[in-house]
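Morning. Coffee machine broken again, so started the prediction first thing and wrote up yesterday's gels while waiting. Chain of 137 residues, entered below exactly as on the submission form.
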Amino acid sequence: MTMTTAEADKILSDRFAPWVLDLGLSVEAVAEDRAVLRLPWSDRLAREGGGLSGQALMAAADTATVIAVSAARGCFVPMTTVQQSTSFQRAVTGSDVLIEAVLTKLGRRMAFADITLSDAGSGAVAARASTVYALMG
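Came back before lunch.
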């Protein structure tokens, strides 16, 4: 049974630290092997020069992976980030960001994902990330 966006949003509100919630992330879509989240534009998240900060983008990619793993498992399970690598390709200014986390392998104890972060206005890829998670439950 596929998780709904409302169930995924509830995982966000119930399981994440207040500073992550302050990013304003929302779940746009979930499927058996992926999740799409929206990071709304905020001047508070911009760095000098007006581009969205890399820290905010990395936190969004990390969070999207948790939602994708939860969707694949059918519910939230305790997990922790083992590795995250991010390559930034262009700045995002004045636009929301869509974060798509796609699971490339889901095992009993480990999960692997590729994440694409795109400017919601233009569709241009702003960054790509890969994550590895240890599943604890």
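The chain has a mean pLDDT of 96. Going to sketch it on the whiteboard this afternoon.
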